Amino acid sequence: MSNWKNVNNWHWVNKNCLKWAQGWFSEQLVGLEAEKDGNKARISKMVDCSGDVDLNQRKGKIITIYDVVLKLNWEGTLADGTEVTGSLNIPEIAHDTDSDDYVFEISINDDNNAKSAIKPVIRKNLTPLLIKKFEAFSAAMIKENCEDVYIESEKMGQATPPRLASPAVAHATTASSTTSTSTSAPAPSATPKKVNTTSLTDKEEFQTSAHELYETLTDAQRASIWTRGHVKLTQQVGSTYEFFNGNVTGEMLELIPDKKIVQTWRLRSWPAGHYSKVTMELEQGSDSVTLKISQTGIPVGEEEIVQTNWSGYYWRAIKGSFGYGANF
After folding, report:
1. Is the dihedral of CA 246, 251, 257, 261 positive or negative?
2. What CATH number does residue 40 fall under?
3. Is residue 6 part of a domain?
4. Which of 94, 247, 283, 328 shows the greatest Cβ crowding within 10 Å of its Cβ?
5. Where is the composition biased (Low complexity) (predicted)?
6. Are 41 and 102 part of one and the same domain?
7. Model confidence over 56-92: pLDDT tens digits?
8. What's the CA gap between 133 and 137, in Å, rounded?
9. How many Å apart are CA 33 and CA 122, to the nearest integer?
10. Residues spanned by the domain of 231
11. What is the tally of structural domains in the chain?
12. DSSP structure class, residue 158
C-alpha cells in the first residue's frame, strides 16, 4: 500500500468503525434464512447495532477491538402456513467472544405453543449462519478500513510478542487462544544439548480453498494480519521465517503451492539450536480444505504447549482474521 498517514504518531492510530459495522451487519445478516421440517425463518431487518467498534494500529500491529449489541427482526412460516414474526437479540459480539459463547435471545410476537415450533429452526439452523458471519467480521473490518491506520513496514516499531503457553497453563487453556508464558529466551549454548523428543499429528478444517489457505500461511502480508505483528516470511525454499517477534522461527524446507509446506519450527524457549520438523498437507474438499499437520522433534514435555499454540495462535487466529471458521 503506497499511501500512509500519521507518520509522526505511528505509536497509536485509531479509527472508529461503528457506522461501517452497522452497514456491514445489515448487509451480511438481513436475508439469511434456514428451514427444517417445513418450518422456515429468515432475518428480515437489523433494528439496532450499538457499541464500540475500533480499528487500531499500534507499533506495527493492526488490531480490531469491538463490543457491540445487535437486535434483529425475523419472520417465518410454519409447516402449516402460519406466519410468525419476532426478534433476535445478541447482547454481545466482541473481539474475544468464542463461537460457543454467543447468546441469542429469541422472542416471538403473539407467542403460543404452536408458534414455538419455529424456535428450534432459529436456534439450531439460523444462528449458526449468524456465527459464521460474526467470525468473518474482523477480517472484513481490516480489509475495508485498514488504509486509514496503515503504516509502511519501514516506519513500524517492534511489535509486542505474544505470550506463548507454558506448562502451568497449557492444560487449562487448550481450547483458548489467550495462552501465556514467559517469552524470555534461554542463554545461547555453544553446542546444542541432546534433547529427548516426541511428535504429534492433527488436522483442522477451514472454510476456504487450498490456495487461499496456502497463501495465508506463506504470504508475509497475510501472516502479519493473523499474527498481529511483524513477520519475516518469503515463499522460497531455504528461506528463514520469524513469527511473533521471534518467538517462533524456522526454515522453509519444501513448498508445493496449494498442497504442502515443510518447515523447521522452534519456540524461543527451547534448548538453543534445537528445531522440530513440521509438515502441513492441504487436502481440498468440495467446500472446504483440510489441513493435516505432523510435527516431529518436539522436546518431551512440550507437546501440550505446542498443541495449544497451534490451536490458538495459528488455527483460531487465522479463522478469526479471515472468516475461515467451520461451516455450521
Report:
1. negative
2. 3.15.10.20
3. no
4. 247
5. 165-192
6. yes
7. 765 556 778 888 999 999 999 999 999 999 999 999 9
8. 6
9. 9
10. 197-322
11. 2
12. P
